[in-house]
Amino acid sequence: MVCIAEINNNINKKSIGMVKEVKYNNKKHFYCEVCKLIYKDRIWAEKCEKWCKHNSTCNLEITKYSIKLVR
Ligand SMILES: [Zn+2]
Predict the structure, then answer these.
(1) Confidence of residue 44 (pLDDT cuts 50, 70, 90)
(2) How many domains does the chain have?
């Protein structure tokens, strides 16, 4: 699993529910703005984004639910 989290600039932002929607295989998915991983469920994208903004590592317990990276 590749993770390209760049959290340093976002570490002080505590925004919640800022996940982006993205169309993938004609279905609506959600992605974490920080590490660009796509999730089927908004809840995981939110968890990922929250984690990414406050930690310098990716949480495998979250990223294992991701589908792929946004190009
Ligand atoms: Zn993330």
Answers:
(1) very high
(2) 1
